[in-house]
Design brief:
Length: 124
């Protein structure tokens, strides 16, 4: 049963990542990978909310598997982030590559902490 929850979450997360990435990237005329940045930060926020809810006893393990492992696992993408950063550096856009690394880590951690804080405020 657990693996079905992960599969169901991933079945939503993967197309959501693709569609969001395309929708965001088409609106920005830049070499910066805005689509990947957005899906990764949103995934961190969702995972932070879920983690805070689980810590407060408001999210069952089944929900963690469905949303945390399945949805967020398929929505976020470290491999694409790494590839796009490497491609930027190789193409001579080293400032964009460095900005991608710094902004992704800072915004991702910030979103995760914000998600936990919101969840704690709601369920504490």
């Amino acid at each position: 049963m657990n693996w079905l929850l992960v599969v169901a979450g991933a079945a939503v997360g993967a197309p959501l990542r693709y569609l969001t990435d395309r929708a965001v990237q088409v609106r920005h005329d830049s070499v910066f990978p805005w689509g990947t940045f957005v899906v990764n930060v949103v995934g961190c926020l969702i995972l932070g909310l879920l983690t805070g809810a689980a810590a407060a006893g408001a999210a069952a393990s089944h929900l963690q598997l469905l949303l945390g492992t399945g949805l967020c696992g398929a929505l976020t993408t470290y491999s694409t982030f790494s590839y796009e950063t490497l491609r930027l550096a190789e193409d001579g856009a080293r400032v964009y590559a460095a900005a991608n690394v710094v902004a992704s880590v800072v915004a991702g951690l910030g979103a995760a902490f914000a998600g936990v804080a919101v969840a704690e405020a709601c369920w504490a």
